[in-house]
Write a sequence for this structure.
């Protein structure tokens, strides 16, 4: 066998698996979007003009943007301590990063319900301490959805940011300090810009993951903060309107593809994806 063909032979089974698991189902969904209930592009026209669908899309992108900002900001602080902290601080951060991966998304969502509901732990403690007279409404709204989604996505945002921090040239920081820059100025004008690719990569990944959330918004939103994934579920399994649900799915996939292309193009130069 020619040496140049060995990589293709090794990666061939993986490519076949990905094609069978992702490409073929997507092509089926694409076919539904232009054939059900009758051939044509009417499903895409409806998705682009229906006020209900447009409101859900606006809410989805708004929530995803807020979640991205919250998750990336928290992940940056965690990554900074993880990379530059003391051994004890690094161990604590590693536990905070890894333990959430061992807990299912469903368990986390119900955990937040137990904490944030009107009779949950937080409202009970605040009421007993006399801080509040009436329970705070922290679930069945966008606040609970944002909090639950950000909590789930923070560990995913940590890794690209931490990778960019580890690839940072310490000599540049030493040179800035040697030139008389204060620690705050070194951080804002040197350290932060040099880790911008990691921030960008974390933001794109977090935003892409948040677009497909279903369980967390359904539980913490209580049907009052419907997002795109839940709308697709409702259109396919409860309406049923398979063609329109498939059209919305295809539109979301196009958005995800564009975002991932941006990630591959602009986050790679810093060495984040090496």
């Amino acid at each position: 066998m020619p040496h140049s063909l060995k990589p293709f032979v090794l990666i061939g089974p993986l490519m076949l698996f990905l094609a069978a698991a992702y490409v073929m189902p997507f092509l089926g969904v694409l076919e539904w979007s232009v054939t059900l209930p009758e051939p044509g592009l009417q499903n895409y026209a409806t998705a682009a003009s229906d006020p209900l669908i447009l409101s859900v899309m606006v809410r989805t992108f708004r929530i995803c943007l807020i979640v991205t900002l919250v998750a990336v900001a928290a992940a940056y602080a965690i990554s900074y301590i993880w990379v530059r902290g003391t051994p004890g601080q690094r161990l604590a951060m590693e536990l905070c990063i890894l333990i959430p991966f061992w807990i299912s998304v469903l368990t986390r969502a119900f955990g937040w319900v137990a904490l944030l509901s009107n009779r949950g732990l937080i409202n009970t403690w605040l009421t007993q301490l006399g801080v509040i007279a009436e329970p705070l409404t922290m679930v069945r709204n966008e606040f609970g959805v944002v909090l639950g989604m950000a909590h789930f996505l923070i560990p995913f945002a940590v890794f690209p940011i931490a990778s960019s921090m580890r690839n940072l040239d310490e000599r540049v920081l030493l040179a800035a300090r040697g030139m008389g820059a204060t620690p705050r100025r070194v951080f804002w004008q040197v350290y932060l810009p040099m880790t911008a690719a990691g921030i960008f990569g974390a933001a794109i990944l977090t935003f892409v993951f948040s677009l497909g959330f279903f369980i967390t918004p359904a539980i913490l939103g209580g049907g009052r903060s419907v997002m795109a994934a839940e709308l697709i579920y409702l259109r396919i399994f409860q309406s049923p309107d398979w063609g329109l649900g498939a059209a919305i799915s295809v539109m979301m996939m196009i958005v995800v593809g564009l975002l991932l292309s941006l990630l591959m193009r602009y986050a790679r130069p810093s060495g984040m994806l090496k």
